[in-house]
Structures are given as C-alpha cells and as structure tokens.
Amino acid sequence: MLFLSCIATAAVCYLLGSIPTGFLVGKARGMDIRSAGSGNIGATNAFRLLGKPAGAFVLLVDALKGYAAAAWLGPAVARLVGINTASELQLHQLVGGIGAVLGHNYTVWLGFKGGKGIATSGGAYLALAPLAVGIALVTWIVVVLITRYVSVGSIMAALALAGAVWATGHSVVLGIVTTGLSGLAIYKHRNNIQRLRQGTENRIGKRRPHPEGAK
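^ thats the sequence. predicted structure below, dont judge the formating
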C-alpha cells in the first residue's frame, strides 16, 4: 500500500508540476516564449519577454506548484488511502515535491521540455525545509546583486540549498534527494554555464544577443 500510494502521489504531483505556467501566460499574451529569449518557459524568461507583472505571476505560480505538492497534495493522497503516521506522511511530502519539480522540468504537455526547477524547488522546500530555503534565497539575492547574473545566482542557490539541508540536521534521505535535485538544477543551467564561459551570458540591466536562462 505504501509503495502504491507513493506512486500515486508522484503521478498526481507530476501532473500538477507539469502545468506550463510561463507557456500559458505567454500564449495568453500572444507569444510562444519558447521561440524567444532563452526559449525557456520559466520565470526569468517570462520576466524578460512578458514584463514584470507577468513574470512575477509565473514565478509565484511555479513556486506554489511545488509548495502545494509537498505541503498538501502528497499528504492528502496518503490520508486518502489510510496512511497517517508522521514518517509516512513526510515521505509523501518528499515524493510530492520531487514529482512537482520533475513535472515542471519535463512537462508532458510540451514534449517533456520545461523549466529549470528553481522556483518549483523553492516552493517544495518551503514545506520540506524552510530554513534551508531561507539560506538559499539569501544566497541567490547576494550573488545576483554582486554578479548581476540570474543564472549564477540560481546555481549558487541550488548548491546552498543542498548544503543547508545537510547542515541543518534533516534526514539523510532528504539530504540525498536535495543533492540530486540540486545537481539536476545545475545540469539544466548547462547552456548558461557555457555562455558564462564564452562571455555572452546576459546580465541584469544589460541586453546581450543570448539572454540568460529562466528558472
């Protein structure tokens, strides 16, 4: 029963995470954001192409997908099948968060191509490890202010999240999962890393031929 409920949680939360917020908002504005800027459906590309209000909406909804999956939907599936122990509910929270991030990164509605999972991961970890999220957010802000690169801030925030989860005494399972998700986030920024090496990555406030990737 536990295994099947975890599979159900992963599937339901994947579908929630796979809602392509940036793509849908872009379509509502008459634009396919996959064909402009970085081609990514995440919040940074939405900010760049659609403006601040639309970008903020995409960021908020993408984060809420992760939070809802980990805080509410995962435990709801567990309780639906009669699972109520604290450890098993926490497991379903974790599975729900993972499902939402993977859904955002590899949405079934867009040929399994999606965002980079930063906002959705942040939302999920707000339920799973809020202190670690705070540390990652501060890291992101400081790095972006110093470098003016959103991509560098996102990469460093992913590393900070993993380190903070290990340092703040969470379970080994959560530490391993967080390390894996952080590695995935960095992998999803591989094009940004290449542009950083070439000196063509776009900085905040300065346009370049190759805009930086979105979260």
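The two ends are 35 Å apart (CA to CA).
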